[in-house]
Amino acid sequence: MKKTFIPNIITIFRILLTPLFLYFLVTPKPFFMLFALITFIVASVSDGVDGHIARKYNVVSEFGKFADPLADKILIISTFITFVILDIIPLWMVIIVVFRDIFVTVIRSIMVKRNNSIVTTNIAKAKTVFQIVFIYIVIAFKMLLQVPFMAFITPVIIFLENNNVYWILMTITTIFTLYTGVLYALDNKAVFKKEQ
């Protein structure tokens, strides 16, 4: 019985880690960007751990099916919004990502309420990985700029930032995210209509 709750506890833990991560991200203190990176690593790794445990012990629950992707969205979207506040990426890209995620979450809610499961594609999972890798890159670059003994790499990072590396990567991420939203709509259209 205890194993049933472990994946859900890990999912909730990931949600609770998000405010701490954001605090480290926005606080301009020595090594806080490093703390932000470590916290984000723990949060993102926990995403794979809870799913692995749920499948291994066959304790996949409807709560987990809904809460796990929701926890990802809370972590990723709040990070993107923070990046907008820090003037790292433009607002319009985040609006597209948020709109897509709200759309998919609404579909998930309807399917769960009707005792049905939404179809999750591998490309949608790849989208989440892509978003997380982008966040890793941004935080890692910002962290390296704060570490004195990594000063030799500072010119490279500054060069990349001045040449819109974040904008380019976020543009790709946004297009990919929007594409998976369209796929969600198409893949689940038949199920949705069936339940009308």
Plain-language structure description:
By secondary structure, the protein is mainly alpha-helical. The chain has one domain: Four Helix Bundle (Hemerythrin (Met), subunit A). It has helices at 2-26, 32-56, 62-85, 91-113, 122-146, 154-162, 165-194. It is globular and about 55 Å long. The mean pLDDT is 84.
Average per-residue pLDDT, rounded, comes to: 84
Largest sheet: none
SS-based class? mainly alpha
The total beta strand count reads 0
Summed up, the domain count is 1
CATH architecture verdict? Up-down Bundle
Give the topology, please:
Blueprint: H1 2-26, H2 32-56, H3 62-85, H4 91-113, H5 122-146, H6 154-162, H7 165-194
Provide tags for this entry.
single chain, 196 residues, 0% strand, globular
Describe the structure concisely for a colleague.
By secondary structure, the protein is mostly helical.
